[in-house]
Write a structure and sequence with these properties.
About 10% of the residues lie in helices and about 50% in strands. By secondary structure, it is mainly beta. The chain folds into 2 domains: about 5-120, Immunoglobulin-like (Sandwich); about 125-245, Immunoglobulin-like. The strands form 4 sheets. A 7-stranded mixed β-barrel has the order 11-12-15-14-13-17-18.
Length: about 250
């Protein structure tokens, strides 16, 4: 049975809401099948109607990509999707809760429904990077920390090796500004990961961009390099979609 999903969204309670469009009513006994793209094992949940909600935690989905199928009797078809994609505001709300696993429903490049399952560790989701007036500036959202939005300020510092640069954290919003000259000093020692230390949180938070469903930021998202005293300073994402700073040694 062919079916097209017009809406697929995972809510804060980790429930997948689906709206399906099909040429006929969904047959009684139909199931949603989620298949791990690499391992090939299945998880199944009842799909009683074209509009349904599926609790994801009981399915014990491990990290990875899971393709969605509609199984009706002996017939099984991959579910196509015309859902235009996630709402960043909805993702922000989803990321307010502390979690061990996060779920994201998305449309594949081939136009089908899939779920991305990831381990959810507290982090900073980068929202903007600027290079201006001799400074590197970055803003972001604290995700999976359990902190709440609002005006509450906490002491925070951006970590550059062993150096701490004062940063601003208000509610779950973050901002920091660092002199490019200071960055060069540290980046010349080797590629530099960026982390944030926040009052009342037990561990340091890595800066990255993993909350949305856009893969391959290492290739897709490039910031213009800054040249400080003849040394090119570059800002890039690694294969884990975490933000790094590097300097071209021997330049200048």
């Amino acid at each position: 049975m062919r079916a097209v999903v017009t809406k697929a969204e995972v809510g804060p309670a980790d429930v997948l809401s689906l709206d399906l469009r099909a040429p006929a009513p969904v047959p009684e006994g139909s199931t949603l099948v989620l298949r791990h793209r690499r391992q090939g094992d299945d998880r199944a949940a009842p799909l009683p109607s074209a509009s349904a909600e599926v609790e994801l935690h009981p399915l014990a989905l491990r990290p990875g990509l899971w393709d969605a199928y509609l199984r009706a009797g002996e017939d099984e078809t991959k579910i196509r999707s015309v859902d235009p994609g996630f709402s960043l505001d909805a993702l922000d709300v989803y990321a307010l809760r502390p979690r061990e696993i996060s779920f994201l429903a998305y449309r594949t490049q081939g136009g089908h429904l899939a779920l991305r399952v990831r381990e959810a560790t507290p982090a900073v989701d980068v929202r903007a990077v600027w290079l201006r007036e001799g400074r590197f500036e970055v803003t972001g959202l604290l995700v999976f920390t359990g902190l709440t939005p609002g005006a509450v300020r906490r002491d925070a510092a951006l970590l550059l090796d062993a150096k701490e640069v004062p940063a601003t954290v208000e509610g779950v919003r973050f901002h920091a500004a660092v002199s490019l000259v200071d960055l060069i000093e540290h980046a010349l020692r080797g590629d530099l990961p960026l982390s944030l230390r926040v009052e009342d949180l037990p561990g340091d938070l890595r800066l990255g961009a993993r909350l949305d469903d856009v893969p391959g930021k290492r290739r897709r998202l490039r910031y213009p390099p800054a040249v400080v005293d003849g040394v090119p300073l570059r800002f890039f994402y690694d294969e884990r979609e975490e933000l790094w700073i590097g300097a071209e040694r021997g330049a200048g």
